[in-house]
User: Fold this.
Amino acid sequence: MMKDENVPAGEVVYADYTDVKGNPAPLAIYLPYGYDKSRTEGYKVLYLSHGAGGSEMEWFSSGNTQYVFDKLIANQTIEPTIVVTMNNTNYSWELPVIRENIMKHIIPFMEENYNVGKNPSDRAFSGLSMGGITTSYMYSKEADNFGYFGILSGSTQTGLDEGDVNVDSLKKPSVMLGAGCYDFGLTGDGSFPISGFAARLDEMGITDYGYYEVKGGHDWIVWPQLIKIFAEQYLWK
Assistant:
């Protein structure tokens, strides 16, 4: 999606927080048009992960996510939403480290410095490819702390295999799985494709999730389509 000059535009700002390693690390933060730091009700927040080799810039520079949200918010399809992207490449995709960084460093930073809601229903997590793996892991471990998960073009069953899974908790959030119809993250061998994750959820009796295939492969044609579906059909519903 390209920028629509007729739509009020939000702003992408950049901030450094202190990460799990004690180092300054970057966030890119989309603030919706009219963001009010003094608003009584905290804003809903989508935490969004890139894929392998990406950074906090990718969802905005390649995916034009800010324009997707500008238009959905202007059309009142979703309520004004903050989108936060981080750099998970810094942690070599060590999922427990990424989880700790998000829960103990990124979310507290956002809650201290921005007007964001602090309830699980105010938070969503999504990501593509390796970010989809991250999202599925976060879902398996943090289902009580997020109301919405968008698992795109990649997944892992690692978190589901570790023995501390609460199926009742996994049934609480709204979950969407999605990939391109020519996407190697859709079907295939191993646990990476989302079809395998869907089958595992079915086996666990977790069947109330969305499953989408859109035109395209493992690429930036697919992911803006999927994040739009996730935003307009799942977020804050």
About this structure: The first strand starts at residue 11 and ends at 18.
